[in-house]
Design brief:
Layout lengths: L2 H29 L7 H7 L6 H5 L2 H13 L4 H12 L5 H16 L11 H10 L9 H19 L3 H9 L7 H14 L1
Length: about 190
């Protein structure tokens, strides 16, 4: 086999891998929830001890979780997630372009000071989308970082002292007071 046919085979393999990856990404994006949850329903059915989503929907939860992440040297994950949330609210092309470049430089670029843990292909897609950014250009990366926080940091956070302080300070009018006792019982049974 000569070198030109080997290069041709390498290019075909690369295209096949890229096509398979693109298909998986498309399926992943299609599986993301699109409906919005009514804030009142969320407060009635969820508590801080049940989900990262509820924790992040409240300013006091964001502050406590960020303090915890800072103690673990990974607060950039929450900072990125929050920046993406804000980014989705921009409408004008100028704002989108400026803020997309800023988020990319701060969190996505391999030289960024607060680089988040994203794979090469996600970074590449974001870099390409910077040519004409839309409110959804960070959606996949944001979801990946959310899942990382949910499956890793949030679980440790629920076992931390910061979390217990947050629960103890949670206002009873939100319906969280009645759940503190149940959480303490679950924790004592787990121990």
């Amino acid at each position: 086999m000569n070198w030109s046919s080997k290069i041709s085979l390498d290019l075909q393999d690369s295209k096949r891998i890229h096509k398979a990856w693109k298909s998986r990404m498309h399926n992943f994006i299609q599986s993301l929830p699109t409906g919005k949850i009514n804030r009142q329903e969320r407060n009635e059915t969820s508590t801080l001890d049940e989900s990262l989503e509820t924790l992040l929907s409240q300013k006091c939860g964001q502050i406590a979780f960020r303090d915890f992440l800072k103690s673990e040297f990974c607060e950039e994950n929450l900072d990125f997630w929050l920046a993406c949330q804000e980014f989705q609210t921009f409408d004008s092309p100028e704002e989108l372009t400026q803020r997309a470049a800023s988020i990319y430089e701060e969190f996505v670029s391999t030289e960024s000071p607060k680089q988040v843990n994203l794979d090469f292909y996600t970074r590449k897609i974001i870099r390409q989308s910077l040519q004409q950014p839309s409110p959804s250009c960070f959606v996949v990366a944001q979801k990946k970082i959310y899942i990382l926080m949910e499956n890793d940091s949030f679980l440790r956070f629920t076992q931390s002292k910061q979390y217990q302080v947050l629960l103890d300070a949670a206002p009873k009018q939100r319906g969280l007071g009645k759940h503190r006792k149940a959480l303490k019982i679950r924790r004592s049974n787990a121990a």
